[in-house]
Amino acid sequence: MAGAEHDELFEVKNSLYIGNYQCCINEAQKVKTSDDAVRVERDVFLYRALLGQRKFGVVMSQIKASAPPQLQAIKLLAQFLQDPQQHTSVVPMLESLLSSSSLDPGSVVIALAAAAVYCHMDNYEAALKVLNQHDTLECRAQMVHCYLAMHRQDSARRELKALQEKDDDATLTQLAQAWIHIAAGGEKLQDAYYIYQELLDKNTSTPVLLTGQAACFLGQGKTEEAEAALQEALDKDPNCANTLVNLMVLAHHTAKPQDVSGRYLAQLRDSHKNHEVVRDLLAKEEEFDRIVKQYAPVSA
Amino acid sequence: MLIKFETKSNRVKGLAFHHKRPWILASLHNGVIQLYDYRMEVLVEKFEEHDGPVRGVDFHFSQPLFVSGGDDYKIKVWNYNLHRCLFQLVGHTDYIRSVKFHHEAPWILSASDDQTLRIWNWQNRTCLSVLTGHNHYVMCGEFHPTEDLVLSASLDESVRVWDISGLRKRSSQNLFHQDFRPGAQELFGGSHDVTVKHILEGHSRGVNWACFHKTMPLIVSGADDREVKLWRMSESKAFIVDTMRGHTNNVSCVIFHPKRELIVSNSEDKSVRVWDISKQNRTQTFRRVNDRYWILAAHPKLNLLAAGHDNGFIVFKLERERPAYDVFNHLFYYKDRYVRRYDFQSGKDVPLMTTRRVGNFAQNSGSNPRTLLYNSANTNQHNIIVITTADQGTYDLYVFAKSRDRDVDQRTTESPSPLRGVGKSVAFVSRNRFAVLDRDHLQISLKNLSNETKKKLRLPVTTVNHIFPAGMQRLLLRCPDRLILYDTATAHQINELVTPGRFPVKYVVWSEKHEFCAILSKYTLFIADNNLQQLCLISETSRVKSGSWDPAGAFIYTTQNHIKYCLPSGESGIVRTLNVPVYVTMVRGSTMYALDREWNPVVIEIENTEYAFKIALGSRNYPEVARIIKSNKLVGESIISYLLKNDFAEGALHFKQDPKTKFSLAIECGNIESALECAEELNSTDCWQKLGTEALRQGLQKVVENALVKTGNLEHLSFLYFITGNLPNMRKMLTISECKDDPMSQFHNALFLGDVETRIKVLKSTGYPQLAYLTAKTHNLVDQMNELKQDLGDREMQIPDVSKATLLQPPIPILQNEGWPKLEVPKGVLTAQYFHDLEVEQNIDAKQQEIDRDTLGFNVDEPTEDVEEDDESWKWGDDMDITSPKGDKDPDEEAGNSDIGDWSDGGEYSAKDSDGPLDDFFMPNAGPPSRQQWMQNSPPVADIVASGSFDIAMVALNRQFGIVNFDPLKPYFLKVRSCAQIQLQLLPNTTAIESALLRSSSPSLPLIGFTFQHCFEILDACYKDVTAGKNEKAIAAFKDVLYTLPLLSTDSSEQLKEILDMLKICREYVTALRLLKQRKQESDPVKQMELACYFTLCSLQPIHIYIGLLHAVKLGRKIENYRTTAVLCRRLLELAISIELPANLQKPIRQVKELLKVCEKKNTDAHELTVSLRAGSEVLCCSSFQSIAQNKRISCPYCDSNFDADCHGRLCLTCNLSIIGNQAPGFSQKAGGGRSGGSGRW
């Protein structure tokens, strides 16, 4: 990035990465450009921000069939996010998009979309394979994400090094560094906290950053601070699944009455049926009920 | 050369600095003497008495005097306080070239064109001596600053040193002689008093000026031969050391620099030149275009010089005196080629590193670093940038590790070598980046700590001439007319601030939390927020020097002569005055740290109360306001008017001493206490009335009473007594009214009191016998009735008809003197704080300490987790002995492995890792989730649950506690499961990842959502519920604990013991509460009695047993089981002694005592009970609530509740978890001991 000229989309991208979707959308709408490539890129970020706000329908209806392949990929991603059951149709289409535009500059976006879908399906290997084709910051960061999800901190750290060499100051690099710190836990949590604090100081606070910081607090046993951060995150986005999950966990740890955590869970179940935690809990409940039967208690 | 002050006037021929005041005298060619204040830059006064040019002036060092000499041959001595010339000394016969005071003797030395110097005594206004010898105009003369020497320079090409020790001796011996024979000296010639010591010959033209060195035996002279000569003198001779050539015209004046090893000369060639004594070369030249220089003067103490020329004079410094420093936790500053670190707390001042030499004349020529920058964003390293203006500006970047272990002193030898770059405007922007302004290319270079350019940003405006740091990835760009806040990440301009005025912004000081910045230019001070929104603007008349933010939010800054404060709200004021400028580095409370002009750290105590008070008030921090008021440091009307102005009468109340004002303020804010105090002091009816009204409004009857008494308002008072039902006082009022002979009030009082006889008496005495009769009649007072009848008859008045009269009785006060409901007067925040702040403070302190301890403990406990440790975990495949729930996934993963290649060899893997080039990317397979790791080493049940292996957890619970009914545990399992991990959103549009929460005590294990503390709290709440009779709620809560216990992770045997204790408590209470429930459903009183007795045998809190006993006693009496009741009564009474009981439970004790007597008397039992009342001897079946025989007793394997053998195989009724009669080790297994005996026995 040395010597790079001013990136018109910097604010747009940065807002998306830190999860400030509305700001991303606003900024994207402000960008006036004559360059087609930039325009498409801008739209990609715009739609991704809409996805971040879970406005899947908007994205799907806005992207026309004639749109460039990048946007098609985003559309497919939207389709998938709205209904994960559709992966059977979405994945092959994404793959064909990928293979047909393997050398286009826009293929990065397709790769990211595909990787996102793979990640949702827990198929990190496939995600990594796709991502590895591209040497952009976001792909690298996404790879860090995959490695962490695979519990491979060592590989994640290696990827981080690559990120740092590319651009040490970039928001994505900072974030990736923070994730790895959090995954490592212990004393590293404080470093992660600093990173989030720095980002919070620099930008407006977003649920993404706040939950990240709350994770640091929780890991350090600072429940009060964690609660403050999470409450702020909830204020920013009352429907953010991760915030709700973390608030539920926090409620457990702070021995809040059952109904507090129950309320968060109900809220989760209501609006995020497909969230991993919701599914996990449901599965565990079922598992519990199943196993309990084996003990077949004598009725009292 | 830094010009501090400049004047425009006629040619300046003489200059003199005042020793203490910021004054300078300039004598002009046109005969005027001007007195300037160079600090305030104003002309103070003009003295116009000389005729023709005035060439010499001098201040007296202690008296308010100065002397001048001019072309009118006159020496004038002036008193500047009196603004006039005191007298003149006449004797010279030609122009006077210079005049000087002696530093201690009352002497004046004058040099004149009449080829002589004269020494005068200005006290008796005589000439002491005439120094003859020069054979041309004597251009200057001066006393040696310490020795008895005089120096003169003359156009005869020589410089002479005269010895005046004889003069001094004579003057001290013959004081009288002198006084009484003025002018004697002239008669006899003074040559024997003053002798020529040395004649310095070497100049080839007339010498214009010569000067002694203050401490060394050196003389410097300047002459028309355009040379400056340095002479050394010894006792016997004087010789030329050095000749300095360079001036291109007559050298008019030359002096030694008062602080440095420098010579400063000026000349008619329109230049001032600076020469280095030790290196014998010219270091600097400062030229003027049109003006020839004539005179130089040095300030006796400060680092200031003045030079007079054809059109005025200048006051200047050769180099900046401002130290280069930066503050981040510590003070980092430059001194004598070291960067030093000063610890504000300990006052420890250590050299941190040496700096490289800059330029050729490190010591002398103003080549000291101008700026020092410390990177506050880097927590691991010291990053210091030192900027010098030499060579068009260079910066040196020093990067070195913060080593906490080693002592800093040792490191001074191994100083880091700097990375150098060109540029004088540099700022750190992030942990590892700094920005350098490159004006030539109109760009900002972002560099990393290796001084490599990483990024170049085009300047948004071409006029940017300086950059200041502005926090993370931000810069402030200075243009001539504004400041721009600029984001280096986005290359965007965020905001701008217009900075009018002709002086550029010089410094920007950020507050510690980066909320505010103070922008300093020469005479103005802006405060802006972190987005450069201007908050306030302060204009100063003297130069703003430096500033620092007080942590509370005040900006403390220094000007030339003051320490001042400024709040973001715009409030500002003077903290104290300064004699010499200092540079603030840090302010902590009332301590201000600064660097002085010698670059030494100094500590200055300042009075911070005023601004601390304003801040506290502004931020509504009333505890602080109260504290300040209490400490009583603030006095004076100004603060009171400030408070009143800010609508804060309550605050003002605490200052006001004048009782009258205080009283009205107190009434205004409803503070009755203060008002009462003042009223007592003032003791005026008016006050008491006001107070009474206000107190009445608030319902404070005592105060009202007091006020009414003071005002003597008896009517109101008796009415007050009446409505408050204060009968005794009303009776007093009656007496008073009787004494006062006021029948009306007497009647009223009697009426209110129901005192019929008095009423009759009053009525009779006031001439209403009919009414009196009526009264007597209605109250059936026969004697008086008859008497009155008699009386009426006597007076021949009609006896009133009493048939319609009804009895009038005043109501009987039920609540006497219990006061009224009081009006809730919002207690002023301040008043409230006034009394409670101390307590709060202590709490906060304690809390803080606790937090400190916690965090400390946390840090200590937390072992460092290294990369290695992670690698270790890779051996999981071998160690796993518990099948994971996801186990069936493993084969897939193995399959995935095979096409990537076998990399079970960890060493090879990490070797590949370190290179990590993109091309040989290979797919790693997934690592073990942290959940799986929790399953290793046969962990506690909770950890198994957290890992999600419910099946294994249940097996374990079944084995250990015989639990078969897991249903009640379901929420607990799910809670533990969901507790251990949180979700972390990384990138948009993708999944979140899970992040494990780990125990701080053992960082490889998950955090469990249940804690002992939690259980204790539940139990405490339960006890209260039981006491309050909320049994259903309590029973649920006890069960809650009962279900939590298996999932508590125990680290020690103490904790295990606590678990067992809690288990017992829960078991006993659940049983007891079930007994209670049963009893309430039971209709047979005998059965009820039995259940009540059983209740009392559970091990409960004494208070609960007490309540149980009360019930049992009642029931026992009902069924007439006196003997049993007696036993119960005794137990109850014993218990009542040993515990503290709430009032409502103490009442029955007396009845019980009486009952006991009755029972002991009767001592029979009407019914046979199955329960014997000896505690510990009996075992109750928790199912049937009957006693069980010793041999038929079985128990629950989890909670250890006892049951009759008949219940075998049924689910335990206490815990609902396990099968009665099954065998399981229970909790005690882990402790390694047997089950604690006796628990559960009755």
TrEMBL record, chain A:
Which SMART domains does the UniProt record give? TPR
The question of whether Ligase is a record keyword is answered with no
Q: Which cellular component terms (GO) are annotated to the entry?
A: COPI vesicle coat; Golgi membrane
- Report the GO molecular function annotations: structural molecule activity
One GO BP annotation is:
intra-Golgi vesicle-mediated transport
Question: Which locations, inside or outside the cell, does it occupy?
Answer: Cytoplasmic vesicle, COPI-coated vesicle membrane; Golgi apparatus membrane
Indicate how the chain sits in the lipid bilayer.
Peripheral membrane protein
The alphabetical list of record keywords is:
Cytoplasm, Cytoplasmic vesicle, ER-Golgi transport, Golgi apparatus, Membrane, Protein transport, Transport
Main localization category: membrane
What Pfam families does its record include? Answer: Coatomer_E
Which protein family is it in?
Belongs to the COPE family.
Quote the function comment for this protein. The coatomer is a cytosolic protein complex that binds to dilysine motifs and reversibly associates with Golgi non-clathrin-coated vesicles, which further mediate biosynthetic protein transport from the ER, via the Golgi up to the trans Golgi network. The coatomer complex is required for budding from Golgi membranes, and is essential for the retrograde Golgi-to-ER transport of dilysine-tagged proteins.
Q: How does it assemble?
A: Oligomeric complex that consists of at least the alpha, beta, beta', gamma, delta, epsilon and zeta subunits.
Q: What is this protein called?
A: Coatomer subunit epsilon
- Name the source organism: Hirondellea gigas
From TrEMBL, chain B:
- Give the location in the cell: Cytoplasm; Golgi apparatus membrane; Cytoplasmic vesicle, COPI-coated vesicle membrane
Q: Where is the COPA/B second beta-propeller domain?
A: 338-596
**COPA/B TPR domain sequence ranges:** 637-780
Membrane topology for this entry? Peripheral membrane protein
Cellular-component GO terms for this entry: COPI vesicle coat; Golgi membrane
Principal subcellular localisation of the protein: cytoplasm
Report any one BP term from Gene Ontology. Answer: intracellular protein transport
Q: Which residues does the annotated region (Disordered) include?
A: 854-936
Q: Give the InterPro entries listed for this entry.
A: Beta-prop_COPA/B_2nd, Coatomer_alpha_WD-assoc_reg, Coatomer_asu, Coatomer_asu_C, Coatomer_complex_subunit, TPR_COPA_B, WD40/YVTN_repeat-like_dom_sf, WD40_PAC1
Q: How does it assemble?
A: Oligomeric complex that consists of at least the alpha, beta, beta', gamma, delta, epsilon and zeta subunits. Interacts with SCYL1. Interacts with JAGN1. Interacts with TMEM41B. Interacts with SVEP1. Probably interacts with PEX11A.
Q: What does the UniProt record say this protein does?
A: Xenin stimulates exocrine pancreatic secretion. It inhibits pentagastrin-stimulated secretion of acid, to induce exocrine pancreatic secretion and to affect small and large intestinal motility. In the gut, xenin interacts with the neurotensin receptor.
Record protein name field: Coatomer subunit alpha
